[in-house]
Amino acid sequence: MLAYTIRRLFMLIPVLLGMTLIVFSIVHLIPGNPAQVILGETATEQAIQDLEATMGINEPYLIQYGLYLADLLQGDLGTSLRTKGEISSEILPRVAATFELTIFAMIFAIIVGINAGIISAWKQNTWIDITAMVVALIGVSMPVFWLALMEQWIFAQELGWLPSSGRQSSTNPIEPITHFYVLDSLLHLDFDRALTVLSHLVLPAVALGTIPMAIIARMTRSSMLEVMKSDYIRTVRAKGSGQFLVIYKHALRNATIPVLTVIGLQTGVLLGGAILTETIFSWPGIGRYVYEGINYRDYPVIQSGILVIAFIFVMINLIVDLLYAYIDPRIKY
Amino acid sequence: MKLKYSFLLAMLIAFVMLLAACGDDGDDASEPDTGSDDETSEEDEQDEDDGAEVETDGDDILVYARGGDSESLDFASTTDGESSRVTKQIYESLLDFEEDSFEIKPGLAHDWDVSDDGLTYTFYLEEGVTFHDGTDFNAEAVKVNYERWSGADDTYSFEDDGYAYSMYGTMFGGFHGDDGHVISEVNVNGDYEVEFVLNEPLGFFLQNMAMSYFAITSPAALEEHGPEINENPVGTGPFKFVSWSRDDQIVLEAFEDYRVDGLPKLDGVIFEVIPDNSSRLIALNSGEIHIMDGLNPDDAAGVDSDEETTLYTRAANNFGYLGFQTEKEPIDDPLVRQAINHAIDREQIAEALYAGYAIPAVNPVPPGYLGFNDDLDVYEFDLDRSAELLEEAGYADGFEIDLWTMPVARPYMPAPETVSEIVQADLAQIGITANIVIEEWAPYLERTQQGDHELFMLGWSGTNGDPDYFLSSLLHGDNAGASNRSFYQNDEVDELLDAAKMAVDQDERAELYKEAQAIIYEDSPMIPLVHSEPVLASLSNVQNYVPHPSTSESLAEVELD
């Protein structure tokens, strides 16, 4: 196990290097002079030259890449062109915001998805199964932005139950400690605020969690059906266990392995792919950070944002691989 | 495992493609404010800490939502409209604009004199004004700020930290030591009198003095915060800065010692970012925000008919145009250009793109500007006349031409490809085959300066409310191959524009600009399409809100019922 973990960690090196190369090349993939693009149609010649010098895009390609790597190794992600701030310090609250949203979206997706899958498998081919799977199919196919706007329209504008956007009440901002606002509210022992923050989480978390929820439900159902046909389940049944115990105690654990893979992948996708949700719900997360970077052609920010997202994605995959062994002790590395 | 990495790779490639494909630039032209390495991270945290102390319950706090965050709260080192929208509340300039036009009114200077030769401007400053940090506003503060931008004294220029003052360079002809730089000296004549000595007359000097890009920062704050002044603004305006959480919100509170009694009427303002236009409207309809900028023109009717909300239009301050590379055949012939002018249906463009919130354009200057020529009428949409002109020019059978289409949306051109298709269809009716050419944004801008294009589309947005910024930039022969992408050269027009730029008497300037527009109208080096009138919305309990054409309006008078 330990040897496997170490081997996996070593394998990360080429992956991470490859990532830096791709991310770094982005600037050079876009046709034309980046300084001209940033400055737009009213730019003067002088302003373009100044910006080129500040961006360092006059150096040869390989030298630029070398300098970039050297800075990265020191934890220096560069400076944002837009804000003039250090990216490494700007990016942390964004990552926290996205993590918070993703965690709640996945909690929603896992609880609803797994249970829907189990019930579907349990009541296979009944109207419950069919309804659940049709809903799951719609969930997978629905564009996130549409679902998000519908949620906002129904629950914020028409019913007025939940706030439509943002992470918290705008007139009464929190004093951040960890930048996980739910946690921060609790650390401040401010339970009213925790409720406000949670109410802001509901709509975006549901919007973001719907697709993974549907995928998890379908995966759980098929995996469950397969396990339910196996010999050991028949043995358990023969011993006289009730259906509930059979499913939740004996079948679920073995059915979880493929579901876990999906959960891991989906978590990674959500962390990087929350751009739409974060934009519509005005959620200041990493996706928004990259989006704003793209709008301004803030290349250091785009590079760093993608790098961080890709890094998180790789890490989550590593964790999932290691979790297999925990859940199913028969797996040996 | 193999599968997963290929998925990761696919994600990255998707991202890269997203980037390459992403043409939308969102904001207006931005500025070379580039970064430094020695920015401290503590500063951000500090700001956010302050935020928690805002006690707002029961107070009149106005929440203003917009699509993007400010780049910097140091107004002079950016050209970003979202920045000056906020700094307008915190800072004041020597002069100010009227609430709904570019007419000049007093600001930090209550009076001013101009010498007869137009070379000396003396401003008499308000006395007893304090900055938010408690220090006094005086003539010395004005000098410090102007010399900071011009580089005459670069103690606070912060060039090494990526600060550049391009708006100053544009408006005053360069920087200290440059040939065209207009301001030769800034003299302090006593505590409350400051004198600007110019190298040559500048017709729009007073206009510049009212711009929010040339407001006065507390010298003590420049000393204290250094290059972090962009996150710690200290001015004399009606609201003072409290906190800023990037891409989220900027919190301001009323400045009790504001120089005008009874103002501001609000206790505070929060500028919030909600990127999506539809989400922003939902937030308004649910009462979470008070004012929203960037309403989709298609939603305007709904806002207008709802009793809970109020619709506003901002006066036009830009125009989109279809330009000609006037050195290329056959569009080097004014008759051909006029023919095309008669063939473009501007009304259709205004309806298709702006739901009617746009004015068909006659001149390359927004209406309401000094010297706007009212005597001219929009080239009538008249295909017969157009065909006649083509025949007269010897192109009765039409011809083929490239139509360069912008790859990005701009406020003056929200859907370039739609415009392009309308133009293509219009031209087809008079036998001209337009081939749509799409270039990436950077090559588009570069190659149109090199003159590789034929027909092209672009636009221009105003800043100081003066016609010179439109006419000289776009059509003066000296700017051919730079901002004059039509390569239009007409000595008579150049002379008129030069004379108008140097004249001090505004009536005289107006006449000169009118004359220039009449010639331009006949020569038709570009087809002004429309001036867009952006729409915005508020809750109906918001009182006294007046949108300014520059997009930066003071909220000092605004009240909540």
Write the layout of secondary structure elements.
The complex is a heterodimer of chains A (333) and B (561).
Chain A lengths: L1 H28 L4 H6 L5 H11 L5 H13 L13 H36 L4 H15 L2 H15 L22 H7 L3 H38 L2 H9 L3 H31 L1 H6 L5 H11 L2 H29 L6
Helix pairs in contact in A: 1-14, 5-6, 5-9, 5-11, 5-13, 6-9, 7-9, 8-9, 9-11, 11-14, 13-14
Chain B lengths: L1 H20 L19 H11 L9 E6 L14 H10 L4 E3 L6 E3 L2 E6 L5 E6 L13 H12 L15 H6 L11 E6 L4 E6 L6 H5 L9 H7 L13 E7 L3 E6 L13 E6 L3 H9 L5 E2 L7 H6 L3 E5 L4 E7 L9 H10 L2 H9 L3 E3 L22 H11 L6 E6 L10 H13 L4 E6 L2 H10 L4 E7 L5 H9 L15 H12 L3 H18 L2 E7 L2 E5 L2 E2 L15 E2 L1
Parallel strand pairs in B: 1-10, 1-11, 15-16, 15-17
Antiparallel strand pairs in B: 2-3, 4-5, 5-7, 6-7, 8-9, 9-10, 11-19, 12-19, 13-17, 13-18, 14-18, 20-21
Span between termini of chain B: 62 Å
- The whole-angstrom Rg of chain B is 25 Å
Write the CATH homologous superfamily of the largest domain in chain B: Dipeptide-binding Protein, Domain 3
Low-confidence stretches of chain B: 15-56
CATH architecture of the largest domain in chain B: Roll
Distance between the termini of chain A: 6 Å
CATH architecture annotation name of the largest domain in chain A? Orthogonal Bundle
State the helix count of chain A. Answer: 14
Strand order of the largest sheet of chain B: 8-9-10-1-11-19-12
> Please, what is the CATH homologous superfamily of the largest domain in chain A?
MetI-like
Identify the biggest protein-protein contact and residues per side. A-B, 85 and 89 residues
How many structural domains in the coordinates of chain A?
A: 2
The CATH class of the largest domain in chain B is: Alpha Beta
Can you characterise this structure?
The complex is a heterodimer of chains A (333) and B (561). Chain A is mainly alpha-helical and 333 residues long. In chain A, 77% of the residues lie in helices and 0% in strands. Chain A has 2 domains: 44 residues, no CATH class; 241 residues, MetI-like (MetI-like fold), CATH 1.10.3720.10. In chain A, helix 8 packs across helix 9. The N and C termini of chain A lie close together (6 Å). Chain B has 561 residues and is an alpha+beta fold. Chain B folds into 3 domains: 136 residues, Periplasmic binding protein-like II (D-Maltodextrin-Binding Protein, domain 2); 126 residues, Alpha-Beta Complex (Dipeptide-binding Protein, domain 1), CATH 3.90.76; 215 residues, Dipeptide-binding Protein, Domain 3 (Dipeptide-binding Protein, domain 3, Roll). Helices cover 32% and strands 19% of the residues of chain B. Chain B contains 17 helices and 21 strands. A 7-stranded mixed sheet of chain B has the order 8-9-10-1-11-19-12, with helices on both faces. A 6-stranded mixed sheet of chain B has the order 14-18-13-17-15-16, covered by helices on one side. In chain B, strands 4-5-7-6 form a 4-stranded antiparallel sheet, covered by helices on one side. In chain B, strand 4 and strand 5 form a beta hairpin. In chain B, 55% of the residues are buried. About 7% of the residues of chain B have low confidence. Chain B: Keywords: Signal, Transport.
